[in-house]
Amino acid sequence: MSKDTIGNLLTYIRNADMNKKRTVRIPYTTIGENIIKILLREGFIENMRKHQQSNKCFLVLTLRHRRSRTGPNRIFLNLKRISRPGLRIYSNYQGISRILAGMGVVILSTSRGIMTDREARLERIGGEILCYIW
């Protein structure tokens, strides 16, 4: 039985967002931490910190909320896993699709690490398409 850590990470975040949770605790993995750093840098989440409980590490995420006069409004995260353990999807830098005309983010796993579609196009490098976020 294989584990899809990226799929689990996206599901944790998606479920917390749908249930109007402000924070979510995710098991720590290095690839998960790299994806979360991209989400943090792109402004989809507000904060990330490591938390250690006994001998296990967790990432605690604070989801982003917009403020309005009537109260905080949630920003709905649309997360879609593309490449999965049973079907890997690869693309060169020219074939990476643009999500919402550049408003969304495509996260890729390349030979130079985890990066966004914009970074991959600038460096002219392709890789495995992990997920779409908008």
Automatic annotation (TrEMBL):
<keyword id="KW-0934">Plastid</keyword>
<keyword id="KW-0687">Ribonucleoprotein</keyword>
<keyword id="KW-0694">RNA-binding</keyword>
<dbReference type="GO" id="GO:0009507">
    <property type="term" value="C:chloroplast"/>
</dbReference>
<keyword id="KW-0689">Ribosomal protein</keyword>
<dbReference type="Pfam" id="PF00410">
    <property type="entry name" value="Ribosomal_S8"/>
</dbReference>
<dbReference type="GO" id="GO:0003735">
    <property type="term" value="F:structural constituent of ribosome"/>
</dbReference>
<dbReference type="GO" id="GO:0006412">
    <property type="term" value="P:translation"/>
</dbReference>
<keyword id="KW-0699">rRNA-binding</keyword>
<protein>
    <recommendedName>
        <fullName>Small ribosomal subunit protein uS8c</fullName>
    </recommendedName>
</protein>
<dbReference type="InterPro" id="IPR035987">
    <property type="entry name" value="Ribosomal_uS8_sf"/>
</dbReference>
<dbReference type="InterPro" id="IPR000630">
    <property type="entry name" value="Ribosomal_uS8"/>
</dbReference>
<dbReference type="GO" id="GO:1990904">
    <property type="term" value="C:ribonucleoprotein complex"/>
</dbReference>
<comment type="function">
    <text>One of the primary rRNA binding proteins, it binds directly to 16S rRNA central domain where it helps coordinate assembly of the platform of the 30S subunit.</text>
</comment>
<comment type="similarity">
    <text>Belongs to the universal ribosomal protein uS8 family.</text>
</comment>
<comment type="subunit">
    <text>Part of the 30S ribosomal subunit.</text>
</comment>
<keyword id="KW-0150">Chloroplast</keyword>
<dbReference type="InterPro" id="IPR047863">
    <property type="entry name" value="Ribosomal_uS8_CS"/>
</dbReference>
<dbReference type="GO" id="GO:0005840">
    <property type="term" value="C:ribosome"/>
</dbReference>
<dbReference type="GO" id="GO:0019843">
    <property type="term" value="F:rRNA binding"/>
</dbReference>
